[in-house]
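ping. complex inputs:
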Amino acid sequence: MTKIDKDIALVTGPPKDINNVQKIATLIGMSGLLILVLAAFNVNFPHKGIWLAIALASIAGGIILYSKGAYGNKQEGIKNDGVWFKSISNRGFWGWIAGIAMTGFYIVLYFFPALLGLNADGENTGIISLFDPLSRMLSGNAASQWFVYGTMYTVAIIAFGIKFMWKYRHNKYERLRTFSVMFFQTGFAFIIPELMTRLNSDKFSLPYYDLKNVWPLNYSNFEQYRVDDMISAGNVGLGLLIFGVASVLIITPIMTYKYGKRWYCSWVCGCGGLAETAGDPFRQLSDKSTWAWKMERWMVHSVVVFVVIMTTAVVSTYLGYDDQKYWLTRETFLIGVIAILTILIGLLFFFRRDELKKDAKIGAIGYFVIIVAMIGIHYSAGSRIFIFEAETLRSTYGFLIGSVFSGVIGTGFYPILGNRSWCRFGCPMAAIMGMQQRFFSKFRITTNGGQCISCGNCSTYCEMGIDVKAYAQKGQNIVRSSCVGCGVCSAVCPRGVLKLENGEDSGDSRYDSDPITFGNDGIKLNM
Amino acid sequence: MKHIAIIGNGISGVTAARHIRKLSDHKITLISAETEHFFSRTALMYVYMGHMKQEHVKPYEDHFWSKNRIDLKFGYVSKVDANNKKLVFDNQEELEFDDLIIACGSKPNKFGWKGQDLDGVQGLYSWQDLELMGKNSVNCERAVIVGGGLIGVEMAEMFLSRGIKVTFLVREKRFWGSVLPKEESELVSRHIISHHVDLRFETELEEIIPDENGRAKAIRTNDGEEIICQFVGLTAGVGPNVDFLNGGSVDLNRGVLVNEFLETNIPNVYSIGDCAEFHQHPTGRRNMEQVWYTGKMMGETVAQTICGTKTAYKPGIWFNSAKFFDIEYQTYGWVWAQPKENEAVLYWEHNDGKKCLKLIYDNNNGSFLAVNVFGIRLRHKVLDYWIKNETKIEEVLQNLEDANFEPQFYENSFPEIKKMFLLQLPKTV
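pong. complex structure:
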């Protein structure tokens, strides 16, 4: 079988080389990148602000011009010609090169920022110093490696976002959604937090707060230094703290109930934003096997258990030894957490016991682990939970999940694992919203009667690795916890079978499937 | 427990196998000489265009078959010995069966054109055709496609994706004229031409001209024009792939003749899908229907009969769909190329000329009959309900938006369509 694939791809080769516009665009983009690389190798540019502007403008301009070359002369419609022939998008040579380069970048960024020119004690050098003028303009401070990263992240989402909108210009859902992630990245993740730090003084200090970055994705949101900052920053700070808690406990459940988790994952989230824009060329690389699905459920829910225990341990630790400072005591907090979890699990088991089936056992185990851990926290002395320090838990989580999983693997491996491997296998926020989406949400993807031809486009281009056609060919709605509602399955369907909906549905039809093709009137089943 | 052998692992045979397994513990052997595993034939074009690889066009993972105890046999049946209930393979191997389902599909039609068997001349139906097309595309500058139907359009799109120029010969006055009414046909033609296809109407293939190596180098049309090309695509429909049954005891016409229970003249031998030909179609439609959906329904039906519930094939309201380059097409009910005498037509077309909607209703009693739609997605269940229940056209128009299956935030043309149609509707209906 693989031989046959090879024949078709290799005998004839990719459809066409890139055209002249794309060649010029590549040149422009690469020269922008070259400036950054030279800066990273300590070439000391004069007029850093101007050179930075040139570099970023060339990169963005190159990407946008490349899109014009790719889509400008073509009619509106699906643009997947040659996706599996190009080595960058079929896990071939250039895919691996890109993956290794990006992974390398993330390792340096997270673990060796000094190589980028970060200097805590004096002037920055290298690439970070190139970003100093922009950082001073926004926040008044010198740049850090995170500022460099944030700027490039934002440029990537904007430029590749424009590319994506061009590619899907016939599809208003995709255009709006992409505009939304571009807006939230630029405004909420990048500019507002930088400007907020301008408000800081000796007496008044807000933590760096990307308002749309909700716990547990933002796993450090309730750490002591942040909470202290917020409490000490008067009404504004308190407002932020309340907002942070409300984001998890009120806003997220309401939005997810009405629209599914897509309101966050593919309209607001920064990780999702990068995946949907810069990561779009790699969406077909996600693994669709049932084996991968099984892995996904174990991994992502383990991360949820981990982050809940870790956060509870960290918070209860500082509530414990600084109990004068907070109105919440350690005991009340722990009881509160246990109560909330018990209510949530209770609701789930009460209302959705039929759909849960064997998942119920796994859910029960997860719940049990958390409760035992809570009791462990309660009875352990000081900052320990059983044998672990809360701080050890926090730093382990930060290293394994926060850095390695979400950054190095999640983004660095786009060209190998697809663009959503973090969202699918690691993100605890996605997992929690996913549970709600599966059981308490109006969102689902409906299929259109008997029209499916099992062609496989929907499954192939599902970045979350959902085998969409397995449902569509049975005429069954797709109600999957991992679906981020990107809408691409519906877009690539050649027969108009899939539709993302959040309107009313009659309870039963949500999950039921009809084993007989819709339109076959000869068979009446008594099932 | 019987042994059920199924010749052909396309949508019909596979559907039959799946449903037999749902309903019984019979031993099932699924035979194919095409590919080891079932793939979606309708997706062949996407493999050629690089949208997908073979693994993506398999509707079930490879472990599905053993898990469901469906034995796969890769081999070519050269003879059906119906009286002794056994199959003979081309390597003389034999396989005994209790029940046999013939679901061997189609092959491209060839109408005796001069040069139709030259190298570089082929149709597109099987996986082998696709492989061959890949090889024949090397160093191909222009392809000529003969026959204006669905496979022809797919082939044109496939070639253009690799930068190969296309001349498209259509015998009729307009595109797919035997099926599409004038407006729809013109809409599709405009779109095909806008993709820079050299589309020629009322032009027939006279002869394919070989080079010194026996390879097609040009064609001559019935106007005497010679067109230089390196590939000739024969897409003038498909016919049953039943040559291996010639001289056997199973009755054939063009296809395997069956009754409404999908039974052939031999007890315990059934035929479904593209290769089956009804003596008289149960709903009065054409006696052969080479469509994905009907193949699927026949598979479901024959499984009932084989598992003890004798069931007649009774497809409901006709539906079909296709995609012409970037424009999707759906149809529900039967829209004739020429409206029947009792039929009234409502037609709307978007300003951009890429979307249209046609409703057909009965002039005498106002019952809604059928719809053709291009560039807009409609909801199958709603249309099926309206047509089946002979809903009055006014009611259909009043509730037209219930049939909207367009993605969220799409331009909503339904109010405009409704307004226009209500004005057109005679007050007497």
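The mean pLDDT of chain B is 95.
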